[in-house]
C-alpha cells in the first residue's frame, strides 16, 4: 500500500499524452478535403456576394455610405478613455511600443493557509447533500457558499486514494458492506475527521452537527467512522512515515500536491467583470461601487489593493478586482444579485480579451465564431467585449449540447443579447456547409485537461456545479477509461483546429487551452499548421498536374493523336519527358537569358501566401504594453495562427476580381500565363510579401466610383449569363 502511494507521488499522468496524440494524428492524416481562398469557385461566390452588397450601397441615398459599413451600426463605448494602442502588423511590423513603458502593478495578494480545521459544519452538510446518490437539492444563499462546498468536494476527491487505502487497511467495507455504494460520502466524512485531527467537536457545536448531519443524511456515516477513528488515524500516520511525507499532500501525485483550491478559497480578492449590458458606462460602475463603500482605483494607480478597495485591470477590459470586508456579504449585494458584476477567475479572461482585439489588429470585418462553450461566463465576457466593437457583425458559439436551454437562459438573465448559441458540435458540420461563410476569425476552445488553472472551482461553478469535471480534474492515475477520454479530447482538438483552418473565409484562429501539457499546446498547433499547409500544397500540385494533363490531351487532339493515349495513366505520358523549351524572358535577348526552370517539375510549385497559415505573435494588449501576460502565470495557453497574407473582402477585392474577369477590358492575365492553373504559384515567382495597403479608405470616391461601374456593367443583360444569375441568387 505504501509503495503504491510512493510511486503515485512520483507519477506524471500527462506522460501518456504524446503516445495517444501520435495515434490520433495518424487517423487525421487521412483527411484530404480542404478549401482555399485561391479557389476560383469560392472567389466567385465572394465576388457576387460583394456585388449584391454594392448594389444596396448604390441604391442608398447616403453618398458617404460604403460597402464596408452598410451593415454597421454604432455601438456604445463602456470606457471611451480606455482605448489600448494596438498597431496592426502592417503598420508597425517591428514592434508595437509607441511610448515610454510603465510598470503594471499586480492586483493579487499573498495568501497564507491557517492551521486547524478549515471546513465549517454548513459546508460539510452541503457537500454531503451534493455527493448523495441521487443528490439532495441544495439552495445556496450565495455563490460564496457554493464555492466553499465544491472546494471541499475537490479536496475529498484529491485525497480519495489516501482515504481508500486507510479504509482498506482497517477492513472498513468488509465490516460495513452497507456503505460500499456510498463510498464518496464515506471519503467525505473521513476527510472531515482528519481535518479536525480525529478530535471531538466542542459541546456548543454538537447540537448544530446533529441537526445538519440529520438533514444531509450522514449521521450514521459519522458515527461508524468515529468508532474506527483510532485505527484510521494510525493507518494514515503509517503511510506518511513509510514514505517520509511531512505533509499529507506529499502522498499524492505531483499534479495534485498543489493547495491551489484551498488558497483560492482563502483568497480575499474577488475578481470579475462589470456587465456592460446592464451597467452602461464606467462612470455608472464607479458610482455603484462607491455607494457600496469601495474606493475605486484606475489601472495605472500604484496604490496597493486594500480592504474595501477596487482596481480596474490593466490588461482585460471590464475586469475589476476588489477586497470586500466579507466575501459572503459581497456575494449577496446588489452588485451580484442584479448581475451588474459577474464573478470570474482572471485566468479565464485573458483569451477573450485578446480575441476581442484581433479584428482591429488585423483590420478585418465580419463574424466571429467560438467552437466550444466550456465556461458560459467566459463566453459571456467575450460577448460583453464585442458589445463595443464595431468590426464584429455577429458572434456565434457552438457546442452547447444538452445544456443549450440552460446556457440561453443564463445569457438572457444577465442581459447578453449579441450572441447566438447552438447545441451542434462545431466539428459535426461537413466542409461543404455554408453555415460559416461570413466567419473571418475563430476562437478555438476545445476541451482540454485544464491542468493549468489555478482555481478549478471557478470553472465548476460557472458550469452549474459539474461533479464529473471535478472527478476528472482529480484523477491520480490513468485508467483504460481515462486513456479513452484523453484520446477523445486530443481528437477533438485536432479536428477543431483542422476544420477551422480548412475553410477559405477564415483568416485567423486563436487557439486556447488551460493546460500545462505540451501535447495539447505547441505540439498540437505546430502539427496542424504543418498538416494544413501540406494539404494546401498537395491541392495546388494536383491542380497543376490536371492542367498539364488537359493541355496534353488538347495538343494530342490537335495532332490527331487519340486522347486515350495521353490519359493520366498512359505509359507514353509518363515516360516521355517534355523537351519543349520555355520562351525567353520578354525584353531580354535569348542568348543572354538565364535558363528558366522547367514548368513540368512539380517541385517548383509552392502555396500562395493567401492559402498558407503561419504562427504569429500574440499581440500585447496591456495598456502600458510591457508584456504583462508573459510576466504573469495566466493559466492559459494562447496561440495565434493566421493566413500569411490576409484576404480583405472589401471594395478593393471587388474591383480586383472584376478586373480579373475582364469587366473593364482585357483580363489582366497574360497570354504567357494561360498554360498555368489560376491557383498555381511557382518558386521563381516568389518575392517578399507585398505590404498591406493600410492606406486604403473604403470611403474613397475613386474606389466607390469603380465599384459603381462594376454594378452598372454587371446588371447589363449582355454581361449576365444564365449561370451568373443562378449564382447571384444562391449567394
From TrEMBL:
Q: Where is the composition biased (Polar residues)?
A: 703-717
**Which stretches are tagged as biased composition: Basic and acidic residues?**
660-676
Disordered: annotated span = 561-598, 660-731
Q: Name the residue ranges with Pro residues bias.
A: 580-597
Against InterPro entries, the record matches this protein to:
NSUN7, SAM-dependent_MTases_sf
User: What PANTHER family does UniProt report for this protein, alphabetically?
Assistant: METHYLTRANSFERASE NSUN7-RELATED (PTHR14663:SF2)
Q: Kindly provide the name given to this protein in its UniProt entry.
A: Methyltransferase NSUN7
Amino acid at each position: 500500500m505504501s509503495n503504491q502511494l510512493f510511486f503515485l507521488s512520483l507519477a506524471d499522468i500527462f506522460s501518456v499524452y504524446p503516445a495517444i496524440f501520435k495515434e490520433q494524428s495518424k487517423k487525421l492524416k487521412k483527411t484530404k478535403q480542404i478549401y482555399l481562398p485561391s479557389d476560383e469557385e469560392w472567389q466567385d461566390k465572394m465576388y457576387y456576394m460583394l456585388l449584391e452588397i454594392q448594389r444596396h450601397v448604390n441604391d442608398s441615398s447616403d453618398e458617404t455610405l460604403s460597402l464596408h459599413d452598410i451593415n454597421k451600426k454604432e455601438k456604445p463605448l463602456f470606457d471611451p478613455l480606455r482605448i489600448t494602442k494596438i498597431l496592426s502588423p502592417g503598420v508597425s511590423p517591428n514592434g508595437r511600443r509607441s511610448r515610454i513603458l510603465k510598470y503594471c502593478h499586480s492586483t493579487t495578494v499573498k495568501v497564507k493557509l491557517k492551521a486547524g480545521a478549515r471546513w465549517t459544519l454548513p459546508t460539510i452538510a452541503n457537500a454531503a447533500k451534493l455527493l448523495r446518490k441521487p443528490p439532495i437539492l441544495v439552495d445556496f444563499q450565495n455563490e460564496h457558499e457554493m464555492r466553499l462546498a465544491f472546494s471541499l468536494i475537490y479536496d475529498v476527491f484529491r485525497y480519495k486514494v489516501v482515504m481508500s487505502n486507510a479504509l482498506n487497511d482497517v477492513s472498513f467495507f468488509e465490516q460495513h458492506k452497507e456503505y460500499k455504494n456510498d463510498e464518496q460520502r464515506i471519503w467525505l466524512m473521513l476527510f472531515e475527521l482528519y481535518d479536525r485531527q480525529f478530535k471531538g467537536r466542542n459541546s456548543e457545536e454538537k447540537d448544530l452537527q446533529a441537526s445538519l448531519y440529520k438533514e444531509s443524511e450522514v449521521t450514521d456515516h459519522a458515527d461508524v467512522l468515529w468508532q474506527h477513528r483510532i485505527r484510521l488515524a494510525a493507518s494514515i500516520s503509517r503511510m506518511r512515515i513509510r514514505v517520509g511525507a511531512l505533509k499529507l499532500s506529499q502522498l499524492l501525485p505531483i499534479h495534485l500536491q498543489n493547495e491551489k483550491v484551498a488558497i483560492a478559497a482563502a483568497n480575499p480578492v474577488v475578481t470579475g467583470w462589470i456587465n456592460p449590458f446592464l451597467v452602461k458606462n464606467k462612470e455608472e460602475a464607479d458610482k455603484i461601487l462607491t455607494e457600496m463603500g469601495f474606493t475605486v482605483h484606475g489601472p495605472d494607480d500604484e496604490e496597493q489593493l486594500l480592504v474595501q478597495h477596487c482596481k480596474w485591470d490593466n490588461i482585460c477590459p471590464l475586469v475589476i478586482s476588489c477586497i470586500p470586508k466579507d466575501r459572503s456579504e459581497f456575494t449577496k449585494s446588489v452588485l451580484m444579485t442584479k448581475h451588474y458584476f459577474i464573478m470570474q477567475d482572471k485566468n479565464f479572461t485573458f483569451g477573450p480579451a485578446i480575441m476581442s482585439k484581433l479584428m482591429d489588429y488585423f483590420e478585418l470585418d465580419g463574424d466571429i465564431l467560438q467552437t466550444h462553450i466550456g465556461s458560459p461566463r467566459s463566453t459571456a465576457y467575450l460577448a460583453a467585449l464585442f458589445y463595443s466593437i464595431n468590426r464584429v457583425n455577429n458572434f456565434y458559439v457552438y457546442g452547447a449540447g444538452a445544456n443549450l436551454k440552460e446556457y440561453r437562459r443564463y445569457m438572457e438573465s444577465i442581459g447578453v443579447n449579441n450572441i447566438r448559441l447552438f447545441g451542434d458540435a462545431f466539428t459535426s458540420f461537413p466542409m461543404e456547409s455554408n453555415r460559416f461563410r461570413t466567419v473571418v476569425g475563430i476562437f478555438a476552445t476545445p476541451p482540454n485537461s485544464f491542468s493549468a488553472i489555478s482555481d478549478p472551482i471557478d470553472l465548476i461553478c460557472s458550469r452549474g456545479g459539474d461533479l464529473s469535471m471535478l472527478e476528472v480534474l482529480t484523477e491520480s492515475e490513468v485508467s483504460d477509461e481515462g486513456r479513452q477520454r484523453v484520446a477523445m479530447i486530443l481528437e477533438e482538438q485536432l479536428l477543431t483546429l483542422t476544420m477551422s483552418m480548412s475553410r477559405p473565409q477564415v483568416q485567423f484562429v486563436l487557439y486556447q487551452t488551460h493546460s500545462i501539457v505540451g501535447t495539447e499546446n505547441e505540439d498540437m498547433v505546430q502539427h496542424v499548421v504543418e498538416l494544413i499547409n501540406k494539404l494546401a500544397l498537395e491541392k495546388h500540385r494536383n491542380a497543376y498536374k490536371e492542367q498539364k494533363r488537359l493541355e496534353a490531351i488538347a495538343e494530342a487532339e490537335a495532332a490527331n493523336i487519340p486522347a486515350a493515349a495521353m490519359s493520366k495513366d498512359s505509359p507514353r505520358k509518363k515516360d516521355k519527358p517534355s523537351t519543349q523549351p520555355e520562351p525567353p524572358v520578354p525584353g531580354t535577348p535569348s542568348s543572354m537569358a538565364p535558363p528558366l526552370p522547367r514548368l513540368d517539375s512539380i517541385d517548383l510549385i509552392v502555396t500562395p501566401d493567401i492559402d498558407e497559415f503561419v504562427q504569429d505573435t500574440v499581440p500585447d494588449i496591456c495598456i502600458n504594453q510591457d508584456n504583462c501576460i508573459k510576466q504573469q502565470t495566466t493559466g492559459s495557453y494562447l496561440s495565434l495562427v493566421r493566413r500569411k497574407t490576409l484576404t480583405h473582402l472589401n471594395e478593393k477585392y471587388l474591383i480586383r476580381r472584376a478586373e480579373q474577369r475582364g469587366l473593364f477590358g482585357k483580363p489582366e492575365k497574360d497570354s504567357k500565363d494561360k498554360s498555368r492553373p489560376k491557383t498555381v504559384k511557382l518558386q521563381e515567382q516568389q518575392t517578399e510579401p507585398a505590404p498591406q495597403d493600410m492606406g486604403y479608405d473604403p470611403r474613397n470616391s475613386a474606389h466607390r466610383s469603380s465599384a459603381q461601374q462594376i454594378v452598372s456593367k454587371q446588371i447589363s443583360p449582355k454581361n449576365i449569363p444564365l449561370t451568373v444569375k443562378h449564382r447571384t441568387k444562391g449567394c
